[in-house]
Amino acid sequence: MKNLSKMLALVLAGLMLLATVPAMAEVPDGYPELRIDPTTGAPYDFGGMEIWIYNWWSPADGSRQEANNTFTEDTYEYQDWLTEDEAADTDAADDGEIVETEGEEDISPANWIIDYDAELLAVDFTGEKYNQATYETFKVGDHHYGFSVGAAEVRQVVFFNKRLVEEAGINPDSLYTMVENDEWTWEAFEECLAACAQDTDNDGVVDIYGMASNTTDVYLVATASNGGSFIDVEDGQFVITATEQNTIDAMNFAVDIVSKYQMPQPEGSEWNWFFPAFKSGMAAFHVGQAYEANPGSDLYGMEDEFGILPFPKGTSEDAQYCHVQSENTVVIPGNIDRETANKMAIAYDMWREDTPGYEDDEEGWKTDLYDRFYDDESIDITYALLRENPVADTSIMLGSNNDVLGNGFFWNLPWAGTVAEVMEAKLPTWQALVDDANGAN
User: Fold this and answer.
1) 150 against 284, higher pLDDT
2) Among 393, 398, 405, 396, residue whose Cα is nearest residue 441
3) Residues 6+ apart with CB under 8 A from 127
4) CATH for 156-324+377-440, among 3.40.190.150, 3.30.465.10, 3.40.50.1460, 3.40.190.10?
5) Could you report the per-residue pLDDT of 50-84, keeping only the tens digit for each?
6) Which residues are within 8 A (CB) of 244 and not within 5 positions of it... i.e. 6 or more apart?
7) Which region, left, alpha or beta, applies to residue 276 given φ > 0 means left and ψ of -120 to 50 means alpha?
8) Which of 57-71, 161-175, 227-241, 372-386 is predicted least confidently?
C-alpha cells in the first residue's frame, strides 16, 4: 500500500490487561451466550490466552476506576466472570495485543494492521453494536482496518459560563430552548458572543471576552455544522473538498468570530491558555471537547457553573448540529496469525457486550455523566443530540489532524491572510497527500 501512512504513530501512555480468558463452560442466568466455534460445534476454547489492550488512559498497574454506581459494579462483575484477573506485566503479552488509538492515526499498510474483512470472519463489525462511522472512516479501498463500539464519544461542544451569560442579560435556560426549537444558529451564537463581551470598568478595554476557545475545534466543527469538509472520498478516491462553498462559508464565519470575540492569547502563555482563561471567568464561551469536563481534565472543578451546547448550525441546506468524530479506534497488529486474531476479536466482542441486565436500558449511558456537569440539560439535550450525530473527518486518513489541517492552514488563521489566501497556499500540500494516497490504493 505504498506510503499511505507513517505507520501507527502511537504514544502508549498506559496499558490495560484484558486478563486471561479461560475456557468457559457455564453461563450465569442473564449473561450472553457463549460463542460457538464452527469448526468444533462447541464454545470457543481460549485456553487461558492473554489478550492485552494498549491505550493511553488505563493505569499501567492494571487497576480500574472504583465503581461508584450499581451499573459499574455489575459491569465489573460480568468482566470478572469473563476473565481471570491478573496484575499487568508489560513483559507478559505473548499471545496477542489490541491497540486502541486516539482516532487521529494514519491507516497502516496491510502487513501492519489486520484487515477485518479478509481476516476476522468471526465477528460482524457491521452490526448494530459497532460504530459504522468509525468502520467506514478506517477504510482504504475495499479494506477495513479499525472499529469502535457503540455510539460516538461526544467531541466538540460549546461550554458557557452561566454567571457571565446571565450578567449579560441572557437566560441560560433559553440557550437550551433554542437548541430544542432548532433556533441555535450561527447568528444566535454571535449575538450571544457580542452581548457577553464586556468592558466592566468603562476604561475602554474589554474585561470579559466573548470566548476563549481552541480555534482548531472551532474551525473543525464550524465546517461540519455547515455540511462542509476538507478531504472526502468519491468513487474510492480521495478528493479535496475544502474549496466547496459550504466549507468556505463556514471557515469565513469561524475566522470572523475568532477575530471579533476570541480573547487574545496572553503573552508567554502555553498553547492551552484558553482552559484557565475560561475556567477563571475571563470569557463567557469556550468551544472545546466534552471530555474537558471529566474528573482530572482541564475544566473539572470550575467554580462558576457551566452548561454545554452543540455548536450552532450553519446556513447551508446541509447545516446540522453535530461534532467531528474522533473515536478511540481498535486495531489488531498484522503480525498475529488469523486463528489467534479471530479469538482476540471474539474475546473483545464479548468483553464489550452490554452489561447483563442493562441490555434494554437506553438511558444507561447517562449514568456517569450526571456527576460531571452542573445541569441535566447538558446530558439530556446536548449529549443526547450529539452522540447520534457524529461527522467523520476523512482528512485523518492522510495524516494527523495537526499535519493535514493545522500546520499551514488552521494555525495560520487569521493572522496570515484571509481564508481564501491561506487555503490557496495550503492546496499544493493537500494535493500531494491526495495523489500519494490515491496511488497507494
Assistant:
1) 284
2) 398
3) none
4) 3.40.190.10
5) 888 887 777 777 778 788 788 889 989 988 888 76
6) 228, 229
7) alpha
8) 57-71
